[in-house]
């Protein structure tokens, strides 16, 4: 509430306000706030000056723009400015100010002004900036605004006026929130240099003044520009739209004439370049200002002039990728083979054209412009919120039924919090989750928390029984988009009921809805008779326009047959990608959008080339079933009816499955494929003696396939418990039953695990394995690299996870539909990167996958959410993610190996303390890293002492024992190795697999060597410092010792750090965070160490 009030009131906050946000009533310690120096910079805010030294160079904005009234003297970003005092109220758009701004420049009627403002009013901040820039750049006489011609200077002034009245918006590229006034001043200044220069006296000073005002409004969020400043800026915008001049700053664009630049004007250009950098802008804008600033020092600037002027600019010309990123999805055939190409062509051939340096004769008749105009109009219609054509109903409706997943009730109820007696008048808070297959099979667990606590502690049977009894004694609210009319769940007569109806009966009956019929589009008349037309239909702009402009509350007759026909006839990649985008969406369908350069955006997964065909397919389906999904601003859709959308998803999958992977292959080929997989399975089962927990994990996955109809599985086993062979045996069994069209198994594994995985697959499990070569884009690939993707059928194809970004576009996506995927250490594929984007795309395209790890949680549960959702057939969100997690195949083992955690605190000496103070008082951005390095440097000797003592003690009991010594970096490892070698035989990471590995008492590895090897289990102690990293990595590296094959009943984990130092604080933080993964182990089935006997020797 406090944060909301700060935002709504646009309150100026200080560090005390931030600390107040971190306080939680009832928790004396509050929350921890860690500020990373790389993410912020301390700067001096605006300072109001009462007296100014005569020697000070003052940037006088009052003098630049004229006007009367009081002024402020400010020191801002190292310079002194004199600006008019701010207005007492924010600017409100009115016709009078626009009329005053364009007075004497152009004649515009009140009707035109009102019409222009009315039409531009719905535009976003970005669209208004684009409108201002495109109107000035295109230099047309008039702008066609919804059927009426408006003089271009009027539209430019109106766009500027609406910008001044805007509250502002967030720029993801700059990671900056910009006020409307700031955007107006800065954008207008950029336009003057980039698109249209006004050849008037003092225009260089005006440029400087605009940027100065932009900085003032940015740094002082309570400063409202005066009426005079706003009108002056709007007048500059109107004049720029009329100006035929342009500074020839572009390379290869030399001007036929030049203007003289006075020394004072050159200084204004130089100051403007500095001000823009203080304001922050795109790199290209800042480079342009630097270039003009440098050129102005010569005393002249070359100019270009328009030789002609277009008569009309359609308003849709304001649409391009800078503001409407989805325009790349709407552009039709011939617009480019990649998003990067589409964006470049749209800008170079349309929106970037300027008559001041280009000939625009016959512009609107050009084919590339006509293609662009279609996409621009489609986007603009949504931006202007134009009404759509309502489809008339032609019948009352037809019944549609959706089969419910048994887990819908558990997800709808979510975790139930209960408090049970724990003895000594204490209460224990537990969570009860209804069972996914049968709600009466409730799961009871401790509540996950981030505070340090013992989460390994077993619940007693009485505590579990009491928790279930408490959960059953109350009714619970049901919140599920698949049960919209349901209100509460209650346990009665031994069964869970929903609104008085037994859940088992609801599942058997399914959900039934009655959907009215609407008139069909003309393009689907003969589609069922001629399905080959579907591919051409995706390129039909008329069909797309009809879909985007229509809305309705029903579906057409035979919509199921037409949807199945479309997904059956299109390439599998397009159809499967469309289905994947619908899956688990209950409010909106947001297709990924590319960056301005056509690449990855930092906050979402990648948009892939060809996604425009997927968008068109979804748009056409929205025309067939408008009651399920409705187009919004491209490339997004609104979910109208979640139940009907799930039915549409089912139709689409049925269409895909009705078409074999290769229509030309006879049925006998599918049987032959299964036979080949059976041969592979027989070879594996001859050498794979599965233990009880592994057999149970495979049984759970098979059961989930039968009961829950899931697309994949999330397999959790701790390090060293046999995930590899479990996934391998399950994969081959599934392939023998369902793999008629699956030709290969693809195993994706992180860096550092490939070599050991391949060795295990070939030597231990005798499986034919192919290591997929890295795909290179270099002219001369290195040894072991190729230009193309090479996969081998009926083998395990191992791919380095970091190579996915290249392989996905080189044929791996196309081969995904005929491949079984295993995503090893899937927790490395959570963050929004190209690697994760590729992995998520593959799991959505393939017929079956297994995602496996020992550490499912990284920073928070939201990173796990997307992968969990792909393994469930019920709605998964942040409220019920634990319910989805209860469906993970989690086998937790009681190894009988105790883990003893020890902290060795080294006293801080005066030299270190004094040096840390000096570093802290410095202004360097990397001071925290420097401080951590200093502390670690003075802790290394203690680490060596502890490691040597522990190694000698361990080897006295175990001849081949010793210590695994963890270093922070390669240089740190070299130092520790040199120090330890002076006491005991020591080796590096490679020594673990050496023939004489047993002779090394201390093995030094870096902290990133946390996965993919078993050879450290001969060691009994791990000694480490406190290093930056994540909980998953720390858990994994501990698993190198505490794993199957470890002979000791107890292993030690010793952390050595300097007391009361920054690394000591880091270690405390790690101890608190690491417990989140442990809490998920409660959802797994536990097996005693007895069932593991025999496996330890393998």
Give a quick summary of the entry.
The chain is an alpha/beta fold and 1098 residues long. The chain contains 39 helices and 42 strands.
Description:
- The structure is a single chain.
- The longest helix is centred in the middle third of the chain and has 21 residues.
- Strand 25 and strand 26 form a beta hairpin.
- This protein starts with a helix and ends in an 11-residue tail after the last strand.
- Helix content is 41%, strand content 17%.
- With 1098 residues, the protein is of the alpha/beta class.
- It is globular and about 95 Å long.
- Helix 7 runs antiparallel to helix 10 and helix 22 packs antiparallel against helix 24.
Task: Name the features.
alpha/beta, eight-stranded parallel beta sheet, disordered C terminus, six-stranded parallel beta sheet, DEAD/DEAH_box_helicase_dom, single chain, DEAD/DEAH-box helicase domain-containing protein, P-loop_NTPase, about 1100 residues, 42 strands, globular
